[in-house]
């Protein structure tokens, strides 16, 4: 507990520049005498902290001080800066300013080895604003009103308590409590077409562990692709779901929800996919393809 308080005191002073002992005592709910003892401990650890007297006096740390390796190793510093660097791509001024400050404080620069963009192609501003709204709502525990489109194209307006942003299988979701359903729900962020943060707080709770029950309710879909589709097959299926045939074709077997999304997904391959299992999906796909033909036939 004491070690945690010492770290917090250091960072508080670095942020404020100069603070008084009574201010620190109130902040950390200890006595002024305890604060002065903490200052002695910090000083004995080699950190240039000192106390000045007078009207403008207080406790401060020597200007241009760089955190010693005793607190963070070079590897840890780069991990912290890289994490902030990945967050800064959503164009959040706070993260970018914090990245700059910590870089100067650590006396190092993050390695420019990764770039993360949360948006889809062609919709950078819209997706990033939505991501930023949901992130802020989750951090500040604010209720959010969303307009959500289900996989069956049903549009609903809901109030949710966003608990955590979640990345799974190439998609971003928000783990939330839905007040309309009185239950926990996982919302795909791409399907949230409108988002508004309300001036209403909620008490955060733990989102229940995701179980395999949802996947177990899916059916096994087995598909055949020609070798020309290798780039998509490896993009969209895991290695253990793919079997390469002697003629170069690929067999992909995965558990998927049988809904409108699946039909649209299979149609996106055009003639470059063959449904092997379940067999009845072949007719469903054929009927949908016929509807498309009937709509556009000359």
From TrEMBL:
It comes from the Bacteria. Gene3D superfamilies: Winged helix-like DNA-binding domain superfamily/Winged helix DNA-binding domain. Pfam families: HTH_11 (PF08279), WCX (PF25583), WYL (PF13280). Keywords: DNA-binding, Transcription, Transcription regulation. Residues 2-61 form the HTH deoR-type domain. GO terms for molecular function: DNA binding; DNA-binding transcription factor activity. InterPro entries: CBASS_pafABC_assoc_protein (IPR051534), DeoR_HTH (IPR001034), HTH_11 (IPR013196), PafC-like (IPR028349), WCX_dom (IPR057727), WH-like_DNA-bd_sf (IPR036388), WH_DNA-bd_sf (IPR036390), WYL_dom (IPR026881). Signal peptide: none annotated. This is Putative DNA-binding transcriptional regulator YafY.
């Amino acid at each position: 507990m004491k070690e945690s308080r010492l770290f917090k005191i250091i960072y508080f002073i670095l942020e404020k520049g100069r603070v008084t002992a009574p201010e620190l005592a109130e902040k950390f709910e200890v006595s002024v005498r305890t604060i002065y003892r903490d200052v002695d401990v910090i000083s004995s650890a080699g950190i240039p902290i000192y106390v000045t007297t007078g009207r403008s006096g207080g406790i401060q740390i020597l200007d241009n001080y760089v955190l010693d390796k005793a607190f963070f190793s070079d590897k840890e510093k780069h991990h912290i800066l890289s994490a902030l660097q990945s967050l800064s791509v959503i164009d959040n001024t706070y993260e970018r300013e914090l990245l700059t400050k910590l870089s100067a404080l650590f006396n190092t620069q993050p390695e420019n080895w990764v770039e993360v963009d949360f948006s889809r192609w062609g919709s950078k501003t819209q997706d990033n604003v939505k991501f930023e709204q949901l992130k802020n709502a989750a951090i500040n525990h604010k209720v959010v009103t969303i307009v959500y489109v289900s996989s069956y194209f049903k549009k609903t307006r809901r109030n949710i308590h966003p608990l955590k942003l979640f990345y799974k299988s190439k998609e971003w979701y928000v783990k939330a409590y839905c007040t309309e359903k009185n239950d926990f729900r996982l919302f795909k962020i791409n399907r949230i077409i409108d988002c508004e943060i309300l001036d209403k707080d909620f008490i955060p709770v733990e989102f229940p562990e995701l179980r395999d029950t949802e996947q177990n309710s899916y059916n096994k879909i087995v598909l055949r692709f020609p070798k020309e589709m290798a780039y998509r097959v490896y993009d969209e299926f895991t290695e253990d779901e793919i079997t390469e045939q002697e003629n170069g074709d690929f067999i992909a077997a995965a558990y998927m929800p049988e809904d409108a999304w699946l039909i649209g997904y299979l149609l996106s391959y055009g003639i470059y996919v063959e449904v092997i299992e379940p067999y009845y999906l072949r007719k469903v796909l054929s009927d949908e393809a016929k509807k498309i033909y009937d709509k556009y036939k000359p």
